[in-house]
DNA sequence: TCTCCGGAACTGGACGGTACAGTACCCGTT
DNA sequence: AACGGGTACTGTACCGTCCAGTTCCGGAGA
């Protein structure tokens, strides 16, 4: 991550950023190398100096995005082991999860990878493992910790993490996948967060917590 | 649904089928009208006699697939109101749900629609409503019925249906979306079906059923 | 019921126009 | 002089159209 200020490095960065936005907005097939060069304020030749061909450029960009997942990892790890505030804490986690995964950029990235999973199988697979499964594994660790402290009843922590994510995300993510650029309201997110967390605790919380008011 | 055997109708059908496979396998941009005509054993001119242009052909094909959802609707409706066999019945429903939605063709169709949701917004939206939401609404009705009979504790039937689907499908569908053509084993499906159903009943079942063994 | 015929539908190929990935060559700055 | 960067080009693919010739369908007549 050394910041090189050489002209070459600056152009390299500009190309990466331009390519990212163009690919996200137009898809792999729809993005032209001319578009990318134009947006990067760079000649096409320069693009080809830095990246062998379109496929290489695409791969590089997609794989670069897995770095940004680290923030999500932290969010998932930092759950206070506070018996009284468990529902509150999980709901906060759910809110962060939801807002993070319904960012337009994240959704566009998802669509981009899914759309080209046939053409770039190893790309989709590695993104799934390094992005998706990593977060779920971390969440599973957190749940195991909470279970050890008697706050949850969890046999299979990974399955519990899958269920937590599924309860929260299935509807909003699907809705966003099928609808072009439509965004959800704040109220919708709140409903999903509280509803999903409540259901999760009903299933995996201690019996006392599972009782409904 | 009248079966017209006129030559025109036969060609029409051949074009529809050829276009479906080509679009599913190559995506919208990757599919060429020449490919479609060749596979349909029809001249390109004939294709354009039947369909104004590529977009029209694409829309028609995608929308035609919503008909096939009717079978899924039936599956969701036919849940016996049998107190003792509730978990067994729901697990059977879960299995059918999972096998139906992990069919390669269904997954390819999902990818195709998602990939082109930007270019064809109304197409993705209407498919979501007529395919996705219709099934969930029916499932919600079923859950309401079961709740009225005292078999489930459900405040918001639609949310419960969303949660049922999310518990079951989030992981397998995502895995399939990101991995090109990989298929799941029978054992995986069984695990997801039983695990998801158990969690659902823990959250929404009667207290007696919610207790774990 | 069988034959034949007019016209609609289809064929195959070619083509204009366009878009785009990748390359060859030239220029200006240092 | 050397080299990073830009312009202009090549070759290809594909959408949509056109045309001249052929095939098929359905109905009229024997």
Describe this structure in words.
- The structure is a homodimer of 213-residue chains.
- Chain A starts with 6 loop residues before the first helix and ends with a helix.
- The model of chain A is unreliable at 209-213 (pLDDT under 50).
- The longest helix of chain A is centred in the middle third of the chain and has 28 residues, at 121-148.
- Chain A has eleven helices and no strands.
- The radius of gyration of chain A is 20 Å and the shape is elongated.
- The first copy, chain A, has 213 residues and is mainly alpha-helical.
- Chain A has two domains: 7-51, Orthogonal Bundle (Arc Repressor Mutant, subunit A), CATH 1.10.10.60; 66-210, Tetracycline Repressor, domain 2 (Orthogonal Bundle), CATH 1.10.357.
- In chain A, helix 1 packs across helix 7 (104-115).
- The interface between A and B is large, with 47 and 47 residues.
- Chain B binds a DNA duplex (30 and 30 nucleotides) through residues 6-8, 11, 32-34, 42-46, 48-49, 53-54.
